[in-house]
Amino acid sequence: MNDLTFAALGCSEALLAALAKRGFETPMPVQAQTFKPGLEGRDLLVQSRTGSGKTLAFGLPLLHRLSDERHTQALILAPTRELAQQVGAELHSLVPKLPIASLVGGVSYTPQLRALSMGAPVVVGTPGRVMDHLERGTLDLGRVSMIVLDECDEMLNMGFLEDVETILAKVPAGPQTFLFSATLPVPIAKLAKRFLKDPVQIQLAEAGEQASHADIAHTPVLVPDHLQVRALVNLLLKDEPSAALIFTKTKAQSEEVAEELSVAGLPAAFLHGDLAQATRTRLLGQFKDGKLRYLVATDVAARGLDIGGLPLVVHVGIPTQMENYVHRSGRTGRAGAKGTSLALVSWKESRILLAWSRRGGLKLDWRAIPTPGEIREAQTARLAERVGGGVSAALLAQAGQLLQGADPQHLVAGLLGLVQADQSAGFDIPAEPERKAAKPRYDAPRERHEGGPRTQRSYAERTAARAERGEGRPEATSRTRPDGSFKRRSELGRELDEKPRPYQRPKVDSAARPRRTWEDRPAPKDVPRPWKAAPAKAWKKK
């Protein structure tokens, strides 16, 4: 058990009171390891999974180092609007009077301009809106002394890395920089090498690709694509979780799944990037407050959504990368709580998930699709547990009136029909003959020996594997630089323009080409018109 406290770390009295008010007394591992070097002004390169308490890990040193001056002192960049707003709310909960400028897209510029004009010491935003304010001249980074790059790997996946480099280049040399990322691919490592000064590297035991989250139970279900929504209805009816965050691959699919759940008596709402920011904020607020039980979302909600005690995350089909699957699953099992990650996978996706489990150390507990009979048994057991409580004298008198002259079994059946009238009884999903088992099999002896199929590795992974085997880097091709990184399209186009073209057609000066005028054109000639010829003589009858 960890006996270290925030007071032993050296937190100020005001922050200790704010932490105690929220029930935080013992720091999480990432917070304990980043506080002292962050307070000393050292740069930090932290590799830690989502949900490990990273906001307080950089927030506490940042709040201690802020001065009373009213100008931008700290800049925090996050990949999504939801994550940026969550970071701002977290800092506000510790220091309610701290002026914070939230620069995110999809909202009005007026409050952002007002906060910047008043000199907010902390600016939290997404790279796109921060770049917009820099181009407008409304954001001054000339006196920034602290920079935080939160979930930098996701900013790389979303294509924000060039904007991040542009923003960092506008900051005067020498700021304290915190870089947090669940993984460290080659572009992130180059960014850290360029902008961080002798950083303290912190890699927690649960970070990286080989990490498994002990607080999350991974329970995949093997089901064909066209039956996944029906299987989801059966699973939710049987388990009846208090809340569930359901991820889909596309925006249209999120709307379809939410509609199917609502029709089955499981009220759900969908959330994706096409919705207005006000609508997204309202839905997230209802989901956090428990007013909305099921939320169907795309990956827009995978970053920045922090729900305390969320019991279930569902994947309707797995994403294309293991890192995205881990981040999705990280919405549950946060801060030491237990959670479940349920994945509905097709036959092909099941083999990919097996490979991920071998690569990331995930323990998969395969389960079958519940039948309508199993759903009724689970509902009956839960109903029997709830019936015993909340019985008053008035209800007993009303029950006596109902039982007069009525068959008790028919009466209870009628009441159950009223209670469950709007809820589906589940779907009868037959198992395919060749795939009756809930757990997938392996198609080759090598897969049976290694525990699943091999996945396509990235260029950085293949390079690292060759380095471990003692092999040299492959020769650079026309599309790669000498260091092995890929060239940009602009570089390839520039090289293509400079390359001689031996079979290029000679250019002709259009100005020197002779042009004919109307006077030079030949006069029209009389052209015979056969359609105006005299008609043939009609045959005469003899």
Report on the structure:
The chain is an alpha/beta fold. Among the domains are: 198 residues, P-loop containing nucleotide triphosphate hydrolases (Rossmann fold, 3-Layer(aba) Sandwich), CATH 3.40.50.300; 163 residues, P-loop containing nucleotide triphosphate hydrolases (Rossmann fold), CATH 3.40.50.300. The chain is built from 21 helices and 13 strands. The strands form two sheets. The protein has a seven-stranded parallel β-sheet with strand order 3-4-2-5-6-1-7. About 2% of the residues have low confidence.
Terminal CA distance reads: 126 Å
Measured as a percent range, the helix fraction is: 40-55%
- Outline type: globular
CATH architecture of one domain: 3-Layer(aba) Sandwich
**Percent of residues in beta strands:** 5-15%
The assigned structural class equals: alpha/beta
